[in-house]
Design a protein that fits this description.
The longest helix is centred in the middle third of the chain and has 63 residues, at about 120-180. The protein is built from nine helices and no strands. It has two domains: about 10-145, no CATH class; about 185-275, no CATH class. Helix 3 crosses helix 4, helix 4 packs parallel to helix 6 and helix 8 (about 205-240) packs across helix 9 (about 255-275). By secondary structure, it is mainly α. Helix content is about 70%, strand content about 0%.
Length: about 280
């Protein structure tokens, strides 16, 4: 067997779990130069490989190699196969695969045959190519699936990185805005930003700050409720006695808790922006 260049046609480290044993052998056998490539570089080496395949078939089937007819038959077969490979009929078949095709063909896996000749070898190769196509399809689908998963992971990682960078830029913009006007609350989901910064450990609140923020929260909440009540009373006064009057309902206990929590986070976020 000639020294062949190793070609990484497939990801051997990640074979498809759907491949059976012979299909795995096929995939491994394809990771060398094709016979057509050898033919284009060294015709003599190529013809030797074909002759070896013919000899192997004779040996495996117990054919008599001593007759003069055998030599002529071998030469005719090799010449005919040479034309087939030159025209691309057998695609990227490697010499390792040709050996597998001969071995399996001699076991009648590709149908019955009579004697070893050009027709027989061609039958073996074509039978093998069908198995080859199935193995290649399974492996390619598996590799494509792995690639898709890798691509999705890379995209997710890139998206996460961009999101992190974008978030940091938003925080920096809020800090700059706070510097320009310290008395104005920077809202724009400030409570959401606070929650994330707190979870990341980027905001640390002392007990004194907590107590002060709680007092400020209660004051702001009371102001908001007062504004809502004032608005309600204004609407009610504008309605005639014949119209359905709007009834003001103070926030429920749960709504009150949620509102206070939101205000607390907003104030804490603005406290953080002053640093």
């Amino acid at each position: 067997m000639s020294n062949l260049t190793i070609i990484k046609r497939y990801d051997i480290e990640n074979l498809s779990p759907k491949l059976n044993d012979i299909q795995k052998e096929i995939i491994f056998a394809r990771n060398t130069e094709s016979l057509k490539q050898i033919q284009s570089k060294d015709k003599t080496a190529f013809l030797i490989e074909l002759m070896k395949a013919f000899y192997l078939a004779m040996e495996l089937t117990g054919q008599n190699k001593s007759s003069e007819d055998y030599e002529k038959q071998a030469e005719a077969c090799v010449n005919a196969l040479e034309r087939d490979f030159r025209t691309g009929e057998f695609g990227s078949l490697t010499n390792n695969e040709l050996t597998i095709a001969i071995q399996r063909g001699c076991k009648n896996i590709y149908g019955d045959f009579f004697g070893v000749n050009y027709s027989t070898i061609t039958q073996f190769i074509k039978g093998y190519v069908k198995e080859q196509n199935e193995a290649i399809t399974k492996q390619r689908l598996h590799e494509n699936d792995l690639k898709y998963k890798r691509d999705q992971k890379e995209k997710a990682e890139q998206a996460r990185k961009e999101y992190e960078e974008s978030f940091d830029r938003i925080i920096e913009a809020d800090i700059q805005q706070k510097k320009l006007n310290p008395m104005v609350l920077v809202e724009d989901y400030g409570n959401v930003k606070f929650s994330r910064l707190k979870n990341e450990g980027r905001i640390v609140i002392t007990e004194d700050q907590k107590e002060r923020l709680k007092r400020e929260t209660l004051t702001m909440y009371a102001d908001q409720v007062g504004e809502e009540r004032k608005t309600h009373n204004g609407k009610q006064a504008a309605l005639s006695s014949n119209q359905i009057k709007v009834v003001y309902t103070p926030p429920s206990k749960e709504d009150s808790k949620v509102a206070k929590n939101r205000i607390y986070k907003l104030l804490a976020y603005n406290e953080f922006l002053k640093k």
